[in-house]
Amino acid sequence: SASGPGAGPLSGYPVIAHRGGPARHAEESVAAYRAVAAQGFALELDVQPLADGTLVVMHDDTVDRTTDGTGAVRDLTLAQWQRLRLADGSTPPTWDQVVEEFGDNLLVPEVKSPDALRPLIASVQSHRLEDRLVAQSFLPEDARALAASGIPAMLLTSAAAPARDLASLRDAGVDYIGASAATPDLTRYADQTREAGLGFAVWVVNDAGAAAGLVRSGAVSVFTDDPWAMRTALRSG
Ligand code: G3P
Ligand code: CA
After folding, report:
1. Is 8 a domain residue?
2. Is the minimum distance from the CB of 225 to ligand 1 under 6 angstroms?
3. What ipTM does the predicted assembly reach?
4. pTM of the complete model
5. Where do the GP-PDE domain residues begin and end (predicted)?
6. Which atom of ligand 1 lies nearest, measured to the CA of 112?
């Protein structure tokens, strides 16, 4: 785990390209990740399994919104997945493709389905990605399991349910809280998080001034749909 708030893999990465930065490219597409990787941003992606267990990269439970297909991701075969086309005509990536092309960049995968947890842990360990990655989940049990496996972990929290057991999460080795930007009294939550010894990140912030203000006041990173708008306000390391 990180040695203190702000330490750990996100140090030097104030900008995390949420879903690859859909303001300019197809959401969670290879082209999006290429563009943001070239700028030195961290890459956020959502991970879930197909019917055969292959981990793929997509936000929604179904392929309906972002591809030309229909149906639940978890019901598809790999052959069906590879026939899908995103808005830019490309095939949505698998997790292995992302690791192969972008494994030297800072990856921020989210465990989007409970079935993705164990395969993601196994993949991170086998590729020795622990120094190049922060894995996130809205489920505290996922964040604890990631930390117990030696993988830098972020617990995502919604506006309605900020984490109340910060010291316990820290003791379990969880490194970061990823708070909704809509959390009431966000500044106080940030202070409590850092006082408990956890790093604090915020999702999703698309205003460059707001993002710069959060980082100035101690947030380690912000997730944004438009990393290019942040370039002058926030330098990536
Ligand atoms: O990782 C933060 C953010 O991605 C969580 O929201 O719905 O975009 O996965 P969502
Ligand atoms: Ca996500």
Report:
1. no
2. no
3. 0.97
4. 0.96
5. 13-234
6. 9
The protein residue with its alpha carbon nearest to ligand 1, atom 7, reads: 59
Ligand 1 in contact with 136 (CB < 6 A)?
Answer: yes
Structure tokens at 55: 């981990």
Q: Is residue 5 part of a domain?
A: no
The alpha-carbon radius of gyration of the chain (Å, integer) is 17
CB 27 within 8 A of CB 18: no
Cβ–ligand 1 contact at 46 (below 6 Å): yes
Total count of domains within the chain: 1
pLDDT tens digits along 104-161: 999 999 999 999 999 999 999 999 999 999 999 999 999 999 999 999 999 999 999 9
CATH code assigned at 113? 3.20.20.190
52 C-alpha to center of ligand 2: Å?
22
Residue 178 Cβ contacting ligand 1 at under 6 Å: yes
Q: Provide the H-helix boundaries in the chain.
A: 30-38, 78-83, 95-102, 117-127, 140-148, 166-171, 186-195, 208-216, 227-230
> Ligand 2: distance of its center to the CA of 58 in Å?
9
Question: Kind of pairing, strands 221-224 and 15-17?
Answer: parallel
In a domain, 25, yes or no: yes
Domain holding 120, by residue range, is 15-230
